TrEMBL record:
Keyword presence, Endoplasmic reticulum: no
Principal place of residence: membrane
Family from the record: Belongs to the binding-protein-dependent transport system permease family.
Quaternary context: The complex is composed of two ATP-binding proteins (UgpC), two transmembrane proteins (UgpA and UgpE) and a solute-binding protein (UgpB).
Gene Ontology CC annotations of this record: plasma membrane
Membrane topology: Multi-pass membrane protein
Descriptive protein name: sn-glycerol-3-phosphate transport system permease protein UgpA
PANTHER family: BLL4140 PROTEIN, SN-GLYCEROL-3-PHOSPHATE TRANSPORT SYSTEM PERMEASE PROTEIN UGPA
Source organism: Mesorhizobium ciceri
Cellular localisation: Cell inner membrane; Cell membrane
Gene: ugpA
């Protein structure tokens, strides 16, 4: 064990811990490194390699074509349409899920009796599998047997997500946002509990209303939580909503709800266009990495920690 080192500026003693066994630190991080290599870097490398191949559906003939698959995919109108669909779907899902979760968290904090019960009930939907969540919303809004669809028709709304692309997108965003609201709610509740009550009480004594106290004190202190959830919800909308899209709309009607991740599946596993599907997966990975980097580079500048 190395003796404590003193700081040259303040003279305080800073404890330094050194492992006597030089191999132990590497053994401790080895499982995480192995999981990262096996489940991220190796599949990513395989996808990048296959994106430069042109194969028949049975893999009997293979031709190395360099970046021809990428040029073909980026010139495909159907793929460009899926990019537009993904942008609309991702923005709408993230905004709805975060706004509703923040509203529910603020309302739950005002409850005096039964606060724990309300929190538990609001967290439970996160345990529902994406496919089950999609089927639940599909049954509720089914134009023939759905109870909520019947209610919409009683108000004169000709609800039909099976034929109307706008209705299908609304249904898809609703199902995806509902699935993510519980996750966001959990973090917003934790963030609200960390807000100093003394600041809110001081603002109230100064005459600040409830709305002003929220936007000037509470919400700025929730900036780290909001930024974290923004990143998580962006990745969720791009990747983790495949099961919901597959269960609710299947990319229809007329590919109006075919997102990027669903098009990768549709071209690769349904149409067996392996090279194009691999190229699309590489492009999607680059998009997600770029969006995350942009968020950390520019959005995090406006986040104040502590």
């Amino acid at each position: 064990m190395v003796p404590p080192a003193s700081s040259p500026r303040s003279g305080s003693v800073t404890p330094r811990v050194v492992f006597p066994n030089k191999v132990l630190p590497y053994l401790l991080v080895a499982p995480q490194l192995a999981i990262t290599l096996v489940f991220f870097y190796w599949p990513a490398g395989q996808a990048f390699y296959q994106s430069m191949l042109r194969q028949d559906p049975f893999g009997l003939r293979t031709k190395f074509v360099w970046f021809a698959n990428f040029r073909k995919v980026l010139a495909d109108p159907a793929y460009l349409n899926s990019i537009k669909v993904t942008v609309v779907f991702s923005l709408a899902t993230a905004i709805v899920a975060m706004c509703v979760a923040l509203l529910l968290a603020v309302m739950a904090e005002k409850v005096v009796r039964g606060k724990g019960l309300y929190r538990t009930l609001l967290i439970w939907p996160y345990a529902v599998a994406p496919a089950i969540a999609g089927m639940l919303w599909l049954f509720l809004f089914n134009p023939s047997i759905g109870s909520l669809a019947y209610m919409l028709r009683s108000f004169g709304i000709a609800w039909d997500p099976l034929l109307n692309g706008t209705h299908a997108m609304i249904l898809l965003v609703s199902a995806a946002a509902w699935k993510q609201i519980s996750y966001n709610f959990l973090f917003f509740v934790a963030g609200l509990q960390a807000v100093p009550k003394a600041l809110i009480e001081a603002a109230a004594m100064d005459g600040a209303g409830e709305t002003k106290r929220f936007w000037t004190i509470v919400f700025p202190l929730l900036a780290p939580t909001t930024f974290f959830l923004l990143v998580v919800n962006t990745v969720y909308a791009l990747f983790d909503t495949f099961g919901i899209v597959h269960a609710v709309t299947g990319g229809g009607p007329g590919k109006t709800t075919e997102t990027l991740v669903y098009k990768v599946y549709n071209d690769g596993f349904v149409n067996l266009i392996l090279g194009d599907s691999a190229a699309q997966s590489v492009i999607l990975m680059i998009i997600v990495i770029s969006l995350t980097a942009i968020q950390f580079r520019y959005v995090e500048r406006k986040v104040h920690y502590g």
